[in-house]
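Good morning,

Attaching, inline, the backbone tokens for the sequence recovery test we're adding to the shared suite. The designed sequence is right after.
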């Protein structure tokens, strides 16, 4: 790490409530950590992980860690929102409007939001009004493809690539593995005009 260069913090929020299909979130988190560790700029990043995130935890985790990148891995429900957990571990959606408002409050430090959840484009469109870069999934995405995307994206980020180029590396990682889902991840950019 270059002297005086700030360390970027990545906050991973994961939720796989009971009564939802089982996701391999632990493997996704491990792949993100390994990708960062194997990169030449590994000392420029820290990773904070919050598992089984309840709706009441979202604000607290973001405020406490003040990350530059927020990565959500879990379930999306289209226009209903992203699925977090209630206090009993059951599914509880958080609406696009609530997420847009939250990221508006932390737009001074969050640079990129990654929504590695099926059908999360509606949330990305809302959040992109507030945050410069937002990654989302336009349809259902298999576990293996979600993991490959994250691995490629974060290795590229930690290798000094921009968010847009890292997004293409993530898509290419899916393509290289022949999973046929490389068109599912999209990136939205905030209009700075």
């Amino acid at each position: 790490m270059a002297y005086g260069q700030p360390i970027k913090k990545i906050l991973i929020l994961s939720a796989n409530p009971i009564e939802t299909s089982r996701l391999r979130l632990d493997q996704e988190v491990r792949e993100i950590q390994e990708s960062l560790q194997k990169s030449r700029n590994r000392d420029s990043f820290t990773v904070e992980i919050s598992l089984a995130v309840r709706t009441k935890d979202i604000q607290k985790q973001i405020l406490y860690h003040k990350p530059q990148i927020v990565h959500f891995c879990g379930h999306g429900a289209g226009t209903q929102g992203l699925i977090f957990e209630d206090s009993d571990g059951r599914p509880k959606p958080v609406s696009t409007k609530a997420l847009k408002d939250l990221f508006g409050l932390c737009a001074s430090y969050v640079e990129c939001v990654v929504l590695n959840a099926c059908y999360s484009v509606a949330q990305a469109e809302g959040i992109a009004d507030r945050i410069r870069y937002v990654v989302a999934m336009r349809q259902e995405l298999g576990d293996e493809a979600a993991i490959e995307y994250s691995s490629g994206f974060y290795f590229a980020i930690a290798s000094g690539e921009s968010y847009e180029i890292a997004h293409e590396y993530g898509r290419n990682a899916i393509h290289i593995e022949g999973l046929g889902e490389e068109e599912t991840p999209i990136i939205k950019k905030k209009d700075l005009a």
